[in-house]
Design a protein that fits this description.
The chain is α+β, with helices and mostly antiparallel strands. The chain is built from four helices and 16 strands. It has two domains: 63 residues, no CATH class; 185 residues, Cytidine Deaminase, domain 2 (3-Layer(aba) Sandwich). The structure holds zinc ion.
Length: 279
């Protein structure tokens, strides 16, 4: 390493540690391994290693790009509530709809059931516009993903979906054919500005998909009349009315589920890893 490189490493805002060593304990760090340098992001939701540029460290152990997530599956009762909401939005507005998934960050994720949050949204046909207002989420809850419908199409991640999701850490699911008897899913995880596509099933389904009772307020938050443009933190007053007051029947426990994404397909197309470091 020459003096210039040494100086650059000194400027790195993250600790630089050896892979799988006792130095490797930081939530955000540059991890160096035999086969290169990785940006490590470890938090309650996931632990990811994303390879930086091709800079090799032959004296170290070899690491693989990986992500392990503790996000639980969406249980069946939650799923049919989501699907009922999507059907009712379609009946009223002939459009897609979006629903957000929240978890209690004070508890382990694996044995939790998602709390659903319907953001105020403006829908029209194949588009949903909404903006997440972090300040209105109860202190113990955090965003953990989203589900949206493609009522008349298959399940995929559109370009718009990609831009909505890329910087939104969590699981993102498109339910295609959401009006049909056999909805289909497209599931991806977005962690640290990287999209991880997976074939893994993140929804517990059964053959029967009955319509169920859903909170009336959910539908009140969907509008197709106005062009709503939200600026961060500018939700209308009265928006804080969600989540914790759902009837208990929506809050059954879900079995412990640990998801290991292995093998993973990392699709870095259009993703960016923002690490202010140049080796
Ligand atoms: Zn979509």
């Amino acid at each position: 390493m020459d003096i210039k490189q040494a100086e650059e490493i000194k400027k790195c805002p993250f600790p630089i540690v050896r892979f799988n060593s006792n130095e490797d304990v930081h939530p955000l760090s540059i991890v160096v391994a035999k086969n290169g340098a990785f940006f490590k992001n470890k938090n309650q939701m996931y632990e990811s290693l994303v390879k930086l540029e091709d800079k090799r460290f032959p004296f170290l152990l070899e690491a693989k790009e990986s992500v392990i997530t503790s996000l639980p599956k969406i249980d069946y009762n939650t799923y049919i509530s989501i699907l009922t909401f999507f059907k009712k939005v379609y009946q009223e507005h002939k459009s897609e709809a979006n629903i957000l998934l929240l978890l209690d960050k004070t508890l382990p994720f694996e044995n939790q059931r998602y709390t659903l949050l319907v953001p105020k949204q403006d829908v029209s046909g194949t588009s949903v516009e909404y903006k997440i207002d972090n300040s209105s989420i109860p202190e113990n809850l955090m965003l953990a993903g989203s589900v949206h419908s493609h009522p008349e199409f298959g399940a995929f991640q559109s370009g718009t979906d990609h831009s909505d999701e890329i910087s939104f850490d969590g699981v993102h699911i498109t339910i295609g054919g959401s009006l049909s008897k056999n909805p289909v899913f497209h599931t991806r995880f977005c962690f640290g500005n990287v999209v991880y596509k997976t074939e893994r099933d993140m929804i517990e389904t059964r053959e029967e998909i009955p319509e169920v009772e859903i909170p009336k307020e959910w539908l009140d938050r969907v509008s197709s009349k106005s062009k709503i443009v939200y600026v961060h933190g500018s939700y209308p007053q009265g928006y804080h009315n969600y989540g914790s007051n759902y009837p208990n029947k929506y809050l059954e426990t879900v079995s412990i589920y640990k998801l290991l994404l292995d093998p993973i397909t990392v699709n870095k197309k259009d993703s960016k890893i923002i690490v202010p470091l140049h080796f």
